[in-house]
Amino acid sequence: MGKTVTNNSCAHGNITIGVNRMKKLKNKTIVRDSEPIASNLLEVESSLRIRLCDCSDIVFRTFEIRRKVKFMLVFVDGMVDTKTLDESLLKPLIYYDLPHRLDGIRSLKDVVQGELLPVAQAKTVSTMNDAIKELLKAGVVVFLDGERTALAINMQGGQERAIEESTSEGNIRGPKDSFTEILRTNTTLLRRRIRNPALKVESKTVGEMTNTDIAIVYVAGVVDESVLEQVRQRIDRINIDGILEAGYIEEFIEDSSFSPFPQVLNTERPDVAASSLLEGKVAIVIDGTPFVLIVPMTFWAAMQAPDDHSERFLYATAIRWIRFILVFLSLTFPSFYVAASTFHPEMIPYRLMLSIANAREVIPFPAVIEAFVMEFMFECLREAGVRLPKSVGSAVTCVGSIVIGQAAVDAGIVSAPMVIVVSVTGIASFTVPRYSFGTSMRLLRFGVLFMAGWLGFFGIAVCLIFILCHLVTLESFGIPYMLPVAPAHASMFKDVFIRVPRWKMNSRTFAVGWTNSRRKYSGKGHGET
Amino acid sequence: MKVSASQMFWLMFIALTSLSLWYVISPTVKIADQGAWMSAVVATVLGLFFSYVIQQLGLLFPHQTIFEYSRTLLGNALGQIVSIQYLCMLCVTSAIQLRGTSDLIHRVLFDKTPIFVLVALIMFLVVYLTFRGGIEGIGRFGELVGPVILITILITWFLDLPNAKWHALSPLVSDSGVRGILQGSTPFASAFGVSLGFLVFIPLMVTPKKSIMAGTLGLLSASVLVIWCMLMTIVTFGYELSGRLVDPYFSLVRFVSLFEFVRNIDSVVVFIIVFGAFTAVSLYFFITCYGVAKWLNMKAWRRTIWFVAPLECIIALLPSSDTASWFWYPQHVWLTYIFPFDIICLPLLLLCIAKMKVWTASSNR
User: Fold this and answer.
1) R_g (Cα) of chain B, nearest Å
2) Which residues fall in a coiled-coil region (chain B) (predicted)?
3) Beta A292-295 vs A282-286: how paired, if at all?
């Protein structure tokens, strides 16, 4: 009844692709951008085959019903759900024939309206370009002889990764699911958490080549309109051929590219994204990556782990303080050690100084060089641990711990206190809940270390003043980075240095949602907001 | 680019604390002995009064700085002279403050590093903050640093409690007499010159009246802090020694010990105080730059940074030793010329003229 042809070579020509032919093809696609769909099916087919030449994954399938109506199905092999295609498109058309009350199909609209095709999403397209766009968006396009429109049916399917536990942001208590590479799955995960028509999902397409789908998600009535408008504008301004990861978008939309601090938060966790949305922030979901971007980001958001909001508040507050201390240590601990042991030994208690001096006696390097070497080694090991295949990973850890540990100390190249300092710093830098924020601390650490080796405590002070000056003047989408501490907003302090019990948080803890800052009505009961 | 009330509080608090903790304690105790605390109280009252005069003057022209309204009040020629001398004073004072900070670091932490390295480094940071953030950035910086300074000083008090010999305070009213107490109050009262900032700040405030209240509160809390620090140095060292030490408060910090383990933490305190001093220097640097721009009628005030900054560096490097920034300037220039003329008389005179003008205008009508 029908014939299936896989488009292995161009319909009209040679196998070798000459420059001229490519030019011709290019001209064809450019000049006839809004070429209407021809009513003759053969013409449509040849036009499509020229445009989609050398695309072996595109399947053309033509067939007739009752020798009256000619159909052509076009789809990308592997991107559509073939089971659904068989069940809901081909079976009704081929086996059950046309419904009796329809003698013939007069228009494609009839096909949809007559409930012939039991598919959820279908729309009609009238130009070749639109048809191809829909086709490449994992759709099945149905062309009909004698019809100037085509029917594009969304039948996204094929292989995709299941929803798994997050690998980059772990937690003990709280939801375990994480985003995947599929945009629709990700927006669904958000919609399941916020079941309210106020949750808006605006879609955009970015990238001339990749045509990547992007969704801007926010809660209407809570979101800061100025931030939302800026997000729309900055995304519209992006002019690039391909978007392959959230990082591409991040670099385009962030406020100051030369800052070491990330101004856009990325998360793999739907619960983090949903709670940010409820605070009036904007989430940007990008097809093809499990990382969702959240703007605006503040310094203090980087210090919050998902567990903070599921654990009991006393414990959550205590842990948060440990985290503050560790972040400070990860930036300055080697520098303080170098400064104190080189420039201000009188500060170190007498007995401690004795043991440090004893350990350092045989070491040939000054403390600052020693610190640099060890920090460098630590970064090498960390990078190797991430890159190496899992089977070799354990060997690296084993050798690494011997090299920067016992053997180096025994050989008298590195002092034992320095090994302790570097390991504490390394561990401290991994306690930052946001990985991208931890990396900025690791980067800045080398600068602080250099200044500490040159000017001791004053050098550290200069670095810290410089970093603080930078932080207080940094903004993310018009929101100060250090909000709510500088500029101070006492009403938002409930989730910064301490995490107050949830029944005390009766206003949104982040100021972006000024428009609707009330979170909870009276008492401990729930309230509609 | 506006300052909020809480930022004003911390800015005034930091400016007064970080100045007075070094310059004021020793000279006051030297003159007034145990009566130093009374001197300080008198100084606070006087200082707040001068500050009040300056604020009232500023509030009469909520959208102008002194460089604009001095011309309205005194006529063009006299107004220009007043503006220029205020600008020179601000420029030199902030340069000397910069030098003083560098000298402190030089004395406590590094005696071998050349002074121009320290001056240049601090100036670089000041320019960075002022250029990127303006007064708002400085305000936010103050909000971050202010609480840290306060907590650090509170901790040093707590740690110093075991060293306190409270009998050193008696007699509470010393033999120095009323004259001594009044004389002793001058160094601290002159430190309230930080409120000269109100001559420029008021147009930059979100809510001028509220911010001025907050600023005054900041001055008051800073003076309470300084008075308590003064008492702590007296009970630790006795008034004789406190009057002789160059920076008695840092000596006190050097003296504390916790569990016989934490000792000699003066470096840490200097470390924290450097943050405060930096804020104060940035504040005065901003006032100078902004003032020059207003005086020259420039819209883009940031351009003035590029010639004020090198100028201040040169002025800061002129003195050959730290006696200039620590003794000569505060005692001979600031106390003898700037304090009576710029802080007391000129604002009072301008306020009287302004009030007279308002009064004649209303009686004519």
Assistant:
1) 20
2) none
3) antiparallel
Q: How many residues does chain B have?
A: 365
Does B128 contact A466 at a Cβ distance shorter than 8 Å?
yes
Distance CA B132, CA A472 (A): 10
Q: Which residues of A touch B129 (CB under 8 A)?
A: 469, 472-473
CA A74 centroid distance within chain: 32
Residues of A in contact with B270 (CB under 8 A): 457
Give B180-216 pLDDT, tens digit per residue.
778 888 888 888 888 888 888 888 888 888 888 999 9
- B166-187: per-residue pLDDT in tens? 877 777 666 667 777 788 888 8
Contacts of A268 (CB under 8 A, 6+ apart): A166, A167, A168, A169, A178, A179, A290, A291, A292
Q: What's the whole-number average pLDDT of chain B?
A: 85
Q: Which two tokens stand for residue B241?
A: 């020694």
A483 DSSP assignment: T
Spell out which residues of chain A touch residue B6, defining contact as CB-CB under 8 Å.
487-488
3-class SS of residue A144: strand
Query: Comparing C-alpha atoms, which of A347, A338, A264 is closest to residue A301?
Result: A264
Per the CB < 8 A criterion, the answer to whether B18 and B280 are in contact is: yes
Residue B243 has pLDDT above 80, yes or no: no
Interface test with B, best of A343, A472, A475 (most B CBs within 10 A): A472
Nearest to B105 among A458, A470, A488 (CB): A458
Q: Do B139 and A469 touch (CB under 8 A)?
A: no
Residues of A in contact with B206 (CB under 8 A): none
Among the residue ranges A306-315, A324-333, B212-221, the one predicted with the least confidence is A306-315
Nearest of A503, A484, A520 to residue A312 by alpha carbon: A503
Number of residues assigned to chain A: 529
Packing angle of the helix pair A416-429, A435-473 (nearest 10 deg): 80
Confidence (pLDDT) at A321:
92
Please give the helix or strand (H or E) that residue A385 lies within, else none. helix A367-387
3-state secondary structure of A388: coil
Q: In this prediction, what percent of chain A has a pLDDT beyond 70?
A: 83
Q: Cβ atoms within 10 A of the Cβ of A159, count?
A: 6
User: Which residue of chain A is at minimal alpha-carbon distance from B118?
Assistant: A458
User: Is residue A64 helix, strand or coil?
Assistant: strand
Task: Round to whole Å and give the CA distance between B242 and B249.
Answer: 9
Residues of B in contact with A343 (CB under 8 A): 109-110
CA distance B109 to A458: 8
Euclidean distance between the first and final Cα of chain A, in Å?
Answer: 59
Q: How confident is the model at residue A269 (pLDDT cuts 50, 70, 90)?
A: very high
Q: How far is B261 from chain A (nearest CA, A)?
A: 5
Interface of A with B (CB under 8 A): 343-344, 346-347, 349, 455-458, 460-462, 464-466, 468-470, 472-473, 480, 482, 485-488
Contact A461 B128 (CB under 8 A): no
Distance CA B204, CA B90 (A): 18
The single-letter DSSP state of residue A123 is: E
| CB atoms closer than 10 angstroms to residue B85 | 14
Closest residue in A to B119 (Cα) is A462
Q: Mean pLDDT over residues A201-226, rounded?
A: 90
Spell out the residues 6+ positions from residue B132 whose beta carbon is closer than 8 angstroms to its own.
A469, A470, A473
- Residues contacting residue A450 through CB under 8 Å, at least 6 positions apart: A368, A459
Higher pLDDT, A22 or B144: B144
Residue type, A255: D
Both ends of chain B: CA-CA distance in Å? Answer: 38
Q: Do B139 and A458 touch (CB under 8 A)?
A: no
Scan for tokens 């000129």, then name that residue: B346
- Paired with A73 in beta bridges are A61, A142
Residue A73 CA, chain-centre distance (Å), reads 35
